[in-house]
Amino acid sequence: MPHFPVVLFDLDGTVIDSGGIILASMRHATREVLGREYTDEELMRAVGGPGLEAQMQAFDSERVDELVTVYRAHNEPLHEELLCCAGMEGALERLHAEGRRLAVVTAKRRSTVELAFAHVPLGHLFEVIVGGDETERHKPDPEPLLLAAERLGARPEEAVYIGDSPFDVRAAKAAGMASVAVTWGRIHDRSRLENEHPDAIVDTAEELLAAL
Length: 212
Fold this sequence. Notes:
Shape: globular
Mean pLDDT: 95
Strand order of the largest sheet: 3-2-1-4-5-6
CATH architecture of the largest domain: 3-Layer(aba) Sandwich
Number of domains: 2
Strand content: 5-15%
CATH superfamily of the largest domain: HAD superfamily/HAD-like
């Protein structure tokens, strides 16, 4: 792959190792509100896509607000346990030192992104952050990625989007950007990523740097 001057990142499961706390909060919310048990796969299938409200819609369209409220009350304190994904701090610092322009594009609300970066202090490496509450449409729609490029004054063809979900790959393609799927998020199976045909699939931060 060519050298990309603009590198956009998903957050959950890509930069921060948040799959475990997302799963725990999904299980808590569906159990508390709906009194039902779901498999891990059912709970995580829509994670990384069009935001929490849309994810909860799949469980009960009439109790979305309640599910979201219970999820957030459980999830936000868990951010104290957050860690960076293995090798990503060094990879981000290297890209930043090389003069690459870095941004985060995530379905998380801006306030939750700031909470994450309060515990995993990487926010200073990103020139732009686009949260899920800043656009009308969400991944896999390209709008959030295009907004990040616009804020950076960059053309889509100069950019690559890195993420751990099928929605990330689809959004990159729709935006006219290159796509790299990472496997370390453990939220989506590698086979689901392969089915989207990203430009590259990588298993480690070192492989990611080599792809950029």
